[in-house]
Amino acid sequence: MPVVKKHILPLIVLAQFCCTSLWFASNAVISDLALNFDLKATAVGNLTSAVQFGFILGTLLYALLAIADRFSPSKVFFLSALVGATFNLALLWKGNSLTTLLIMRFLTGFFLAGIYPVGMKIAADYFEQGLGKSLGFLVGALVLGTAFPHFLKGIAGSLAWEFVIICTTGLAISGGLLLLLLVPNGPFRKQSQGVTLKAFTAIFKNKKLRTAAFGYFGHMWELYAFWAFLPLMLLTFMKTHAIPDVTIPILSFIIIGSGSLACVLSGYLSEKFGAKKIAIIALSLSCLCCLASPLFFVQNSAPLFISFLVFWGMVVVADSPLLSTLVAQNASPEVKGTALTIVNSIGFAITIISIQLISWLQLSTNSSWIYSCLAIGPVIGLFALRKKTPVSHTS
């Protein structure tokens, strides 16, 4: 059994955090973008969906060409981070319009396909044992990276909104360099011999892999819609109950960022109780949060509402590393990176539908019941995971 140096996992986690800060960079400064570029109310949904759509097409291309399995994953990660950071920086161009902003966010999302799933691939190449715990740290880094632009916006104070974009760009480049220079190919990596369509059909032919994948798809229906509209949830509650002086960016960071702790905890719990069991518990709890959300909007206690959102922010993502673990464990080694990328691609395609649905409902009604429809995904995921076919009981 190869001995993995202790610094490898922290480096992968740090790089993942730095690079995934690109994901919600525009969401954190959406009010500034709207003011500077004359954007409409639907901009938050459209810009988020543009990133997701770019990620989907990127993952499909990366998977089709088996990029992460044919080439050094660390080099793929670095190049993707460098190009993604460049398009993120392009948000600062004074001549931007809604069209160019959508293009820049699409291209940023496209190259995030070489960051998030490739980071998981690198972890899987190093940690065959304890993969659930390792991916718990890794997805936790993604969650914290996703939340970090909100934190930057909250602490910027009198600084211009461009501060957030410059910081996230610099972080992404730094994260890419970390992996390129300090994380070589893992000991369990098996290089693919070329482009293969095997992984595309494996999801639907392999019962264990299919079960994990459909659980992941249900989870994704809820996750990014919750993250994208969280600031709006907070704003709606504060306005409805006339609660002043609340820093929504900092609250958004705390609520989304709490999920990083949940990912780490679920990774540890999976080693004792099994990845599938803990994933089912987390998915069940997040489903209950979706259904119960209208009740918390109508009560007038801000601490209770925020506490509820923190809990929701934890359980909504706690199953993510476990479901990815199950996918990785049940894919053959030579197409592991491709299989992870495909499952990511389909999962993120689903997020566009839920984000656009919430965006449409938000314009159609001011009812707080609109977030209950996010329960559709967890219900489908639980239906898939309930099957007796065992996926795995080890991490």
Q: Tell the overall outline.
A: globular
Helix/strand structural class: mainly alpha
Measured by DSSP, the beta-strand proportion falls in: under 5%
Reported for the largest beta sheet, the result is: none
Average pLDDT score: 86
Gyration radius, to the nearest Å? 20 Å
Uncertain runs: 390-395
Number of helices: 18
Verbal overview:
There is one protein chain. With 395 residues, the chain is mainly α. Helices cover 76% and strands 0% of the residues. It contains 18 helices and no strands. The chain has helices at 8-20, 25-28, 30-37, 43-64, 67-70, 73-89, 98-112, 116-126, 131-156, 162-182, 198-205, 207-240, 248-273, 275-298, 302-318, 320-329, 336-364, 376-385. Helix 4 (43-64) runs parallel beside helix 7 and helix 9 packs antiparallel against helix 13. The chain is globular and about 55 Å long. The two termini are 17 Å apart. Mean pLDDT is 86; it is low at 390-395.
Describe, in short, the structure shown.
By secondary structure, the chain is an all-alpha fold. The chain is 76% helix and 0% strand. Helix 4 (43-64) runs parallel beside helix 7 (98-112), helix 8 packs antiparallel against helix 9 and helix 13 crosses helix 15 (302-318).
